[in-house]
What does this fold into?
Amino acid sequence: MSALEKSPETAGRAPLMTLGGVSQVFHTKAGPIRAVDNINLSVNPGEVLCLVGESGSGKTTAARMAAGLARPSSGEVAFDGTDIWALKRDDFTTFRRSVQYVHQDPYASLNPTRTIQQTITAPLLKHGVVKTKKAAVERATELLAKVDLTPPENYLSKYPHQLSGGQRQRVAVARALTLDPKLIIADESTSMLDVSIRISVLAMLGRLRDDLGVGFLFITHDLAIAKYFGWHGKTAVMYLGRIVEFGPTPKIINAPTHPYTRALIDAIPEPDPDLTKTKGRESLRSLEIPSLAHLPSGCTFHPRCPLFEDGLCDGAVPELVTIRSGQSAACHVVARDGVAALDDEARSDEPRA
It folds into this structure.
């Protein structure tokens, strides 16, 4: 059984990270931009939570608030049950050590003037994880081996420009591991890698999760990647700053209840033309994503939604409610009529003989 097929038991554990009613509003000349709107999420120790959505959905803004890189306009970010913005300076430093961020672009996230040895030993020495430079180099060697850069001695003296994209991202992960984090926030950390390299990096991250018990907040626009990496975890689907569907990843992938989630799944390329879905993106009323500066009234997905009902969907903002066991969605029509509404819509789009 591969590392990605195993998951630590998280039932009964207190959440490691919690976002409680968190919002982020940016004030611009065009007016306030609500990038994240009242979201509630939690990650347990050793658990994978995938945050999925199109570009501009608010995923990275939510991740930055979870990492303590941005303060929310409202709501609470709690780590080990404590509001991080109520922590004293030393405690906040401890929190920042416990939550590490792996950025999307491995070409920009590493300092080009530092060798790999300098990149990895710097946090070890700065935070007193080791006492001597010799011990720091030994630990750096161990970490490079842990992220499958072997033999590690071949990489210590190299600069980032001498490595491939996949190798750079492995160095970024090794740097994130220097402070023994409890949670890693991976923000589209494989999107810039070739497919074959992407799978090997995901396998490496899954092994680290299992071996070290590290939790992951995994940001991606690709539900196929969420399926591969977070199958035993949970998935939250974001659209224009709000969570529109949440539940165990297998349920989100195999039995989505929100029309936006279904559209994302329909957009996944199908290698066999004979199995290509007939619904796809053509089932949407529009392919245009509304501007955050001029959000539609009611459900923000209604201008694109195939289930749109005038006077219902454009009236009030839908709440995230339980649709079936363990799975919730924010959709007026599905909440009223159940999943049958989506199934009826799918049947109506099937080609007729």
Remarks:
- The chain has two domains: 12-239, 255-348.
- The longest strand covers residues 31-43.
- Residues 12-239 form a domain with the Rossmann fold fold (CATH 3.40.50.300).
